[in-house]
Amino acid sequence: MTNDISPQTPVRWGILGTGAIAHRFMTGLRAVADAEVVAVGSRSAATADRFARTWDIPRAHATYADLAADEGVDIVYVATPHNIHHQPTVQCLQAGRHVLCEKPLAVNAGQAAAMVEAAERADRFLMEAMWTRFAPATHKVRDLLAEGAIGEIRMVQAGIGGRMDYDPQGRLYSPDLAGGALLDVGVYPVAFASMVLGAFTSIQAQAHKAPTGVDSQVAMTVTGSGGTLGVLSCSIEAPIPRRADIVGTRGSIALTDWFCPTGLVLHREGADPERYDYPHTANGFEYEVMEVHRRLRAGERQSPLMSWRESVRIAEALDAARERIGVAYPGEHT
Fold first, then answer.
1. Which positions fall inside the GFO/IDH/MocA-like oxidoreductase domain (predicted)?
2. Second label for 218, Cα 20 to 30 Å away, from 62, 98, 104, 111?
3. What does the alpha-carbon distance between residue 212 and residue 5 come to, in Å, rounded to a whole number?
4. DSSP category for residue 144
């Protein structure tokens, strides 16, 4: 592997997509000193120009293809809805750009594997933007688990959800746009459980469906090696408290707002609770940006904190859950 970004120069970013998540990402990225946003691409000149003016970005492209072809861009952040992740990511990789792609990496495991294959063929960096993995509080969780602070891990519980008004034409409720709770927010607890338990040996799921046929809330149980269990939930019908617990034989770890945590409480058996606080520098997106920069400057093509295999494995778990609840998308292909 070669390092194609000089340590003395900023990492030059392009933003693909101009929706709400792109604006939130920009807030975090602007807090990273060696990041420079040089271009934005959208599906129209008007939206690209508006985003560029808002964030003082020098180049605005009216198509995703034009952004992918921009030789002045080192890495592209793909901020489109997840049903539009696969094609522009592959396009950017083939054009020689590195890619950070929003979660979930793809609609299904076949698409995710194809994106990984494209990165491997192009010798480019690719990472799923699972911001949970890179928060300082999550690093502390991994350290505590590695040192056996709560004994042998036995169970993970994690839930996330919010009430989204039913709109049969809206993205979240549209089968054509791969809508539903599972891919939009359920990817978070699935990825969290995967980080803690490793590969799942079995997956069970039940769902309530919206009139359009997509899943509006899902309850899952997953099994890891050695009989470890995960109890996971997601909803676009109701505000599930954003709490996660990792339970071991000699204690537990509790996190609130766990999908991008700013702290945790360690409960050791027979001891007072220990609180650890890790306030964000900006809004939490800055940590995945810093991870990308570390890997790019080292000439690496994936992050061990969110590897290609891990992203494909999470996509496989989501596929399995959708199979259990009977949700498929029109025209879905791998």
1. 139-253
2. 111
3. 47
4. H
**pTM attached to this predicted model:** 0.96
Six-digit token string for 139? 């690093």
- Out of 97, 131, 165, a domain closes at 131
What pLDDT does 1 receive?
A: 41
Just list the catalytic residues.
Answer: 103
Is the previous residue joined to 104 through a cis bond, with omega within 30 degrees of 0?
yes
The CATH number of the domain holding residue 241 is: 3.30.360.10
Give, in degrees to the nearest 5, the angle at Cα 102 between 97 and 108.
Answer: 100
pLDDT, one tens digit per residue, over 71-92 is 999 999 999 999 999 999 999 9
Domain end marker among 74, 107, 131: 131
Q: What is the CATH number of the domain that holds 109?
A: 3.40.50.720
Count Cβ atoms below 10 Å from residue 114 Cβ, excluding itself: 17
Helices 286-297 and 20-29 cross at an angle (nearest 10°) of 60
Residue 166 makes CB contacts below 8 A (sequence gap 6+) with: 173, 210, 211
pLDDT digit string, tens, across residues 31-49:
999 999 999 999 999 999 9
Residues of the domain holding 71: 11-131
